[in-house]
TrEMBL record, chains A, B:
InterPro entries assigned to the protein according to its UniProt record, in alphabetical order: Homeodomain-like_sf (IPR009057), HTH-type_TetR-like_transc_reg (IPR050109), HTH_TetR (IPR001647), MT1864/Rv1816-like_C (IPR025996), Tet_transcr_reg_TetR-rel_C_sf (IPR036271)
This protein's record includes keyword DNA-binding: yes
Domain of life, per lineage: Bacteria
Name of the protein this chain belongs to: Transcriptional regulator, AcrR family
Domain HTH tetR-type: residue ranges: 26-86
Gene3D superfamilies, A to Z: Tetracycline Repressor, domain 2
Any one Gene Ontology molecular-function term assigned to this protein's record: DNA-binding transcription factor activity
Regions recorded as binding DNA: 49-68
Keyword Transcription regulation annotated: yes
Any one Pfam family match given in the protein's UniProt record, by short name: TetR_N
Organism expressing this protein natively: uncultured Frankineae bacterium
Keyword vocabulary terms for this entry: DNA-binding, Transcription, Transcription regulation
Amino acid sequence: MRSALSVVCHALDMSVVKDARARARAEVVVAIKATAAQHLAQTGAAGLSLRAVARDLGLVSSALYRYFPSRDALLTALIVDAYDAVGEVAERADAAALAAGADPGARWLEVCRAVRGWARASPHEYALVYGTPVPGYSAPHDTVEAAVRLSRVMAAVVTAAAADGSLRPPQRPLPGPTLVTDAVAAVAGGAPPPPYEDLLERSLVLLTALIGTTSYLQFGHLHLALVDDDAWFDRAMAVAAEGVGLVLPLD
Amino acid sequence: MRSALSVVCHALDMSVVKDARARARAEVVVAIKATAAQHLAQTGAAGLSLRAVARDLGLVSSALYRYFPSRDALLTALIVDAYDAVGEVAERADAAALAAGADPGARWLEVCRAVRGWARASPHEYALVYGTPVPGYSAPHDTVEAAVRLSRVMAAVVTAAAADGSLRPPQRPLPGPTLVTDAVAAVAGGAPPPPYEDLLERSLVLLTALIGTTSYLQFGHLHLALVDDDAWFDRAMAVAAEGVGLVLPLD
DNA sequence: GCACGTCAAGAGCACCGCTCTCGTCATGCG
DNA sequence: CGCATGACGAGAGCGGTGCTCTTGACGTGC
């Protein structure tokens, strides 16, 4: 009877109920990731030590290899979580702005501020996601879904601006054929109509400006150059948004 | 007599002729930096091992500590050199474009391409300079002079555009007081005159766009998004340049 | 009730950054 | 000119790392 139930679980609910063994294993995995995330937040990716994580868990280092085949695998798992975190932050910021009746420009400014706020609150996680790639980093395949969440938010904002007529057409359209892949068009919901033929290329510039500016500030390259980082960041985002025709509210 | 000569050397030419000891020491220092740079280019900053460098030099690891007090100090020396390298690349590209009679827009495009070309040729050095900061990184004081070289090139291009009238004034000037420090104004050669009051803020956006876009491409975040990285990079720089009123040549 | 698979523990390997000590050699001073 | 000082390289060693392998205990499924 128990075995029959077990079979039923396997057939219907495998991913939810699972084996008792598998569930215990999953719990250990999340415990490892949790303490590893704590260490990451404190010491950074370079200082994350598998042995130290094991010590905190009351385990011996070799026991961790039952759950993660290598330190890089653990780090990759943390990267995926961090990607997801920034994606969720962006989505929530946009949803909140949308609920407050903000126009597309105001929505995007809130998204930018939220991403930068997350970067400042979690500098090491941010560096893991958008800084120098770690040498043994497995594959973008795990992260591509999580990474696309931010792009989707931007696509929604730009599409809304195009729909309500507030998106200004480019003064000087970019020459040549489209330069983005079909995957980008799929995320954006198809090729943009005239007069926005170069909108996808310009949208990637907008996304790059958000991450690039956040990184440049986060990594201290403008430390001696600015008297008010926050105000300049808002204006930098406004200048970048002009490139796609989006008008951000300032003051 | 020898001692008298030595005194003369000390008084007049100390930094050029030096002691025999000091010169030998300087040679060893450059040898260490050279092989360390090789290792850096191959394995990246994380994989740079003091012991491996010492082995390549036929030394024992402890001997290196006579020249660099720690691994981070050696890494910092490499960072300074890398900053200088990218600054020189930018300066040479601008000088070549200027000699070829290029207008400011064309000059800046060449500078952008040159910086990105250096990043692709020296990815680990680029990551060291513009990627995640290394934890034990000493001080920006050593690098600030080298880092300002690129800014100076940009300032020269933008100033030339303002001087020859090709710089378009902003359609929507940035509100509020100036956000940059006096150091930035000093590099730019003073506060910009009307109608370019926000030029320094916008110029920092331009610089950030160059580095941010190069990093975003270099770190693979647009790997699945673009069919022609080079063409998109040119257009991204053109879109960013629109933000300061600089017109880049495309096609 | 027994065998199997899973798990944690421990020892061990190679490598790392870094410190300390100890000969050696050239240098500069009296 | 002779000697003491100081710089230098070699080597051993410490604590740490990632990772592998073996061993023994435990709970589960047949």
